[in-house]
Amino acid sequence: MIDPERLDLPSASSANRRARCIGSENLIRELRARDLLEPLPESPDAKWGTDIHAAWAGKELQLQAEAQATLEDIKRMETLVLADWSSGEPYSLLGREVRLWLRDGIMPVASGKYDVAYTQGTNRVLILDAKTLYSQLEPAAHNDQLRELVALLRFNYPLFEDFRVAILAPHATQPISIAYFDRFEAELALRLLRLSLFQSNDPNAPRTPGPWCKVCPAQLNCPELRALVPLPKETLAQRVERGDFTLPLGTEGSSFLHQIHTAKAVIKSLEEAYKEIVLKDPNALPGWALRNGKKIREISNTSAALQTWIDAHCNPNDFLASATVSITTLQARFGQATGFKGKRLTQKFNQLFATELTYKQYAPELVPLPLEPPQLP
To answer: Distance from the CA of 168 to the CA of which of 32, 141, 174, 350 falls in 20 to 30 A?
Structure first.
């Protein structure tokens, strides 16, 4: 078993991928049965988010300053949303980091874990889901994972009639996004979940590569995804330089650019997977070897280093001129010292250092626009 927590079954966390690549579940099952499915290595961003979630759930962890600031923002948002939802009436904590199961009879078929849930009376429930990264997010009303969590709550708590879901994302353009499901919408969500599971069992279900491949455990063995990787090869680049290849525009160009973004992300994953293989078996790839990473000098204790510099009768201003200040860390320390949080903290920090702050403008980058919800007649 690869994933004991989920019993190797579909989870709400994979709802986005499953909705857009319905055939991926069959490939995952096939690879698992052939003992070819390996868990993806945890990225630093994922580890960062996991630690923040664990601390939010009550685990004692020593977080870095930026992570601690993010956790405090999430807690503040939780308080705000909870106060607005409860309207001053009593409420109860349903649980933190709880996995809910969908079953056929006594057999589990899918699951989903919510971050935090509260109840009010016998028929109201609030689900909070924290997102810690700096990335574009779908609003709560269109979020596949939250919709499946509502479905699982509907299955496990049939008396609930009022479902509120909220995304808490301190680093997003819209930090708080809330959606409402009534009993009928929750029942529809449950039926859509069952339909998704049924369709994913179709051996002929198509596989569609896209951004969701970055978190798919089958990415290293997916034929459809491998077909995208050769796109940026040298011969194509040479054709572009010679003018023999005209970049498509319109909807065809948009699709082509999506494929390029997917291929870039997957190539990085493939390279990391090959590193793991060569680490275990240095002879697995003839002509390739692991070279030790670059070793660079760094000073971890700035205060001690400054004192050493002064003791050497050197000018402190020369030391400070050589140092680089982390704005994120400094602002987090400023918040700890003053008690300011969230937008108020950023505003006060910017006012304090108004004459010292400069802004570096990066080059524009291509990003996909969020999908517009369909217009009802």
So the answer is: 350
